[in-house]
Each structure stands twice: as structure tokens, then as C-alpha cells.
Specification:
- This protein has about 170 residues and is an alpha/beta fold.
- It contains 6 helices and 6 strands.
- The strands form 2 sheets. It has a 4-stranded mixed beta sheet.
- Helix 3 links the parallel strand 3 and strand 4.
Amino acid sequence: PLHQDFKKWMPEDIDKLESYIRPLEQRLRRKLIRKWIHTHQTQRIDIPSTIRQSLSTGGELLRLKRKQRDQIMPRIYVLVDVSKSMEAHAPFFLRIGRAFSQVLNARVFVFHTRISEITQLLNRNSGRVQEKINAVTFGFGGGTKIATNMETFLKVHVGRALGSRDLVYVLSD
């Protein structure tokens, strides 16, 4: 179904979308969690920090600095454009947003002239989710105010607390 038209994707294809997103989750866990934290409980020695610390004692290695991998998963945000120009693609992108929400615990937003969070709606497992997605998609329309929506997203929904490892996916034309 990956090569079929967006309009032909059905709700049962969500499982297939999730199977495509699961490898991304594994790569995110390996790649984006590269930050190291200092600790005394691990055997891995942080050589650059040890050398910097030894400068204060004239180059004497009095204490070894140790580190371990930080296990914080980055926050993921998915913003889906549901304006008039995206009418044909929005249901498919909302299904992608739902898969991201369920697999990677992402927060999903829709925007056109204003922005709204729909994560709770997409996380409900009912047979009517597709109807709700269609209602959200067709309830909007008109133009797109991307800059205004990004500003609102940062100020209101995220609170300007985006970290250097956080990901924001904008699905738009």
C-alpha cells in the first residue's frame, strides 16, 4: 500500500504505517539519544573531561571522570496542514500523525488559519476515528497562515521549550 494513492489508504492500513514507523523509533533511540551524562556508577571513562579536570591540579590525574549514555527520548511534534490546498492529502497525513502518536508518543496538531492539538482524538481506538479525522479535515479549509501558526505553536503549545534534540515534522505543501 506504500505506492498507492493517498485517497485509497484505509484505517486498517494504520498497522502498516506503524510497521514503517517502528524502525524510525529504533533509529531515534540509537541516534538522538547520544548525549552523555557524568556519573560515578559506570565504568566508561570520559577522557576529555578527565584531562580538563586535571588541568586544575597541574596535570595530575587525581580523579577519573565517568560517563554514561543519557536515556531521554526526544519529544516529537507533528503539525499537519489541513487547508484547502491539502484537502486531498490531509487524511493520509493525519493517519501518519496518528501512527507517530501511537508509536513514538508524538503530539499531533492540525493547522490552517489557526492551530489545534488533536493528539487525544487520534489516540482513541474506536471504529469512528476515521470519521473524526475526516470531520477534522473537512471542518477546516481556506488559507494557511504558517508563520502565525508556528509562532502560536511555540508560544502557546510548547512554551518555547523546544530542546536541541526535539523533532518537529511539518506536513504541508
